[in-house]
Amino acid sequence: MDYISRQLERKFIKMSGFFKALLVTGARQVGKTTMLRHLAQDQNRTYVTLDNLMARNLAKTDPVLFFQTYQPPIIIDEVQYAPELFSQIKILCDESQETGLFWLTGSQQFEMMKNLRETLAGRIGILELYSLSKSERDGIIFENDLDFALISLQSRQAKAPKSNVNDIFEYIWRGGMPQVVGADGEERQEYYNSYVNTYLMRDVAELGGITDTLRFGKFFTACAALVAQQVNYKTLAEAAEISQPTAKEWLRLLEGMGIVYLLQPYSNNALKRLAKTAKLYFCDSGLCSHLSMWLTPETLLHGAASGHFFENHVVTEILKSYAYSKLKVNMTYYRDTNAKEIDLFIEKNNLVHPLEIKKSANPDSREVKKFNVLEKASVQIGDGGIICMCEEVMPIDSKNCFIPCNLI
Question: Which parts of the chain register pLDDT below 70?
Fold first, then answer.
């Protein structure tokens, strides 16, 4: 299979020239190693994976000998298995003036990250890679960072194909794992089966100490049923016959492994009675549709959950866009006790950009009236709009547009 260019490459190369060590985190099989090995093609860079038990054992028992055996500059895969290496990496960083000595991959497990940040503070950059975005899969790399101003959206429109509901739902159903890009339905199903049964179940046992795979499987399926909805620990706990604190712990583990993303609620002191519960999204929609037993893109598109899956798609595509961009943003959603909800707030440069998400080619423009709630919050309101299935960017008013979902 041909290599698919990743949007993170630009940022990774830049940061490799700045930091002495770089960690790329993300779920299993999203293409972390493939990207690093591709970028290291013309370099004399050692490669070692800690999935190899002999290398892992050496790393854990004798970090000094490990780095005599595998000398920097180096790629170390699955570094979460040997946190014992971090102190030695710190020593080697401090002895050298060179940047980009250590390229690491790992899943963002909570304890490891805490340990890593404490040991390698100031020496390491941490970047996150997700499964392929739709634009990456289609071979489109946008020049400009995502911005909701009309002129910026129009410049993206020149590069992107028109939104097509069948094409979007085929991507949502298939997902962005590099290995399923060219797979047929049967191959895709077997891929996700083995992904869940080998990688995920092995990792939850090793990283989270969870041995009851039957209950964890039920819990995981219950998460998929709650996609793009507020997390309900009671529902998750009942589905898996576990306690609510255990459900919380298990969900935090899935978040740390890069499998789910929890969108936090917006908070503002000037606005009272706001929701306190996060919303649950799957970083890869193909895994979610597999767990939910949607067997074809058509049944998913016409099924009862299609609106939730479309929202999941939009939120995770925006998440990927900003993870790879130059700007740091804060993503939240708005909901108050009057059940008034705005799907997404993007906060950047002291502006709040409000966004609604609608699986329609012709949504009601009055939806943007909801954005007025922000006027009470004494915040600056930026450009926003309704992300939908429309084919072209269309202004609604001076601040808001109908935004085709292919432009995110």
Answer: 108-110
Q: How far is it, in rounded angstroms, from Cα 45 to Cα 314?
A: 37
Compute how many other C-beta atoms are within 10 angstroms of the C-beta atom of residue 298: 13
Tokens (6 digits) for 281: 């999204």
Which one-letter DSSP state was computed for residue 63? H
Return the closest-CA partner of residue 4 out of 33, 40, 34. Answer: 34
Please name the residue ranges forming H helices in 226-264: 233-240, 244-256
Radius of gyration of the chain (CA): 22
- CA atoms within 13 Å, Cβ hemisphere of 202: 8
**Is the separation of the CB atoms in 76 and 85 below 8 Å?**
yes
Residue 392, judged by CB atoms within 10 A of its CB (0-12, 13-18, 19+), counts as middle
Tokens of 346: 């993007």
DSSP letter string, 315-376: HHHHHHHHHTSSS--EEEEEEBTT--EEEEEEEETTEEEEEEE-S-SS--GGGGGGGGGGGG
User: What pLDDT was estimated at residue 125?
Assistant: 95
Closest CA to 262 of 309, 209, 223: 223
193: Cα separation from own chain's centroid: 21
Domains in the chain, CATH or no CATH each: 8-128 (3.40.50.300), 144-322+329-407 (no CATH)
Query: Tokens 């423009």 correspond to what residue?
Result: 365
Residue 208: the pLDDT is 82
Helical residues (DSSP H) of 77-161, grouped into ranges: 85-95, 110-119, 134-137, 150-157
Closest-CA residue to 86 (of 48, 46, 116)? 116
Angle, CA 220 vertex, CA 217 and CA 222 arms, to 5°:
110
pTM over 0.85: yes
